[in-house]
Write a structure and sequence with these properties.
The protein has a 3-stranded antiparallel β-sheet with strand order 1-3-2. Strands 4-5 form a two-stranded antiparallel ribbon. It has a two-stranded antiparallel sheet with strand order 6-7. α3 crosses α4 and α4 packs across α5 (54-66). The chain is built from 12 helices and 9 strands. With 233 residues, it is of the alpha+beta class. Helix content is 50%, strand content 15%. A hairpin with a 2-residue loop joins β4 (119-121) and β5. It folds into 2 domains: 3-84, Winged helix-like DNA-binding domain superfamily/Winged helix DNA-binding domain (Arc Repressor Mutant, subunit A); 87-229, no CATH class.
Length: 233
């Protein structure tokens, strides 16, 4: 099939419909959201999360893999599943925003406090902390409005242990706004967002929950983020 045929409106509509149907089944949706923390999990773990039998989970995961929503790695006797990439995570976050209702209506988040304060969105920071860091990076002009970093601003990131040039070379989008589903405002996504999460963990500003997407903010981290970035939580 020619490239122009693949990009035709009819083919795009059909692909969107297939992907939407794949995500739209409740058990598959639970599996995908279980993987939104960026970790890999076995089919057995995902079956428990989705509350289905292992054989049913296997069929669901096969469908998700066919639609390029998950990838699988084989290690010994185990098969580990993870999201296909940050673009899938962004789509899932966007769907969460839509599921929360129209922004024109009063929005009362039902997100648990520990997740609303700080959590991972695939491999970057989300929640109140993620939004606050995003806003301060723009206010300090470390980050431009087009989500670029001017050469004379790279030293700010360097002070946090983030090598901007190395981050640019990664085979993914450098930086972008990712709409936060609990705050209804952007947090920082892309390679730079992932680097910021890594730097905060390395500096022990935050600690990651091993069993969920929750992020804990340390007392040291609160002091450092206020002193160095003006982020008050």
């Amino acid at each position: 099939m020619a490239a122009q045929d693949l990009a035709s409106p009819d083919n795009i509509d059909a692909a969107v419909a297939r992907i939407a149907a794949a995500i739209g089944e409740p058990a598959r949706a639970r599996m995908l959201y279980c993987l939104l923390d960026g970790r890999a999990r076995t089919g057995t773990e995902l079956a428990l999360a989705a509350e289905v039998s292992p054989s049913t989970a296997s069929a669901h995961l096969s469908r998700l893999k066919t639609e390029c929503l998950v990838q699988v790695a084989v290690q010994g006797k185990h098969r580990y599943y993870r999201l296909e990439g940050p673009h899938v995570a962004s789509a899932l976050e966007g769907l969460s925003v839509l599921a929360g209702g129209s922004p024109l209506r009063a929005f009362v988040p039902n997100t648990p406090n520990r997740l609303r304060t700080a959590r991972t969105c695939y491999d970057h920071l989300a929640g109140t902390l993620g939004v606050a860091l995003h806003d301060r990076l723009l206010a300090l002009r470390w980050l431009g409005e087009a989500y670029d970093v001017a050469p004379d601003r790279a030293r700010g990131f360097a002070s946090l242990g983030i090598d901007i040039e190395a981050t640019r070379k990664l085979r993914r989008r450098f930086a972008c706004a990712c709409l936060d589903w609990s705050e209804r405002r952007p947090h920082l996504g892309g390679a730079l967002g992932a680097a910021l999460l890594g730097a905060a963990l390395k500096k022990k500003w935050i600690v990651q929950d091993l069993d969920s997407r929750a992020i804990g903010i340390t007392s040291f981290g609160r002091r450092e983020m206020l002193a160095r970035l003006g982020v008050r939580l």
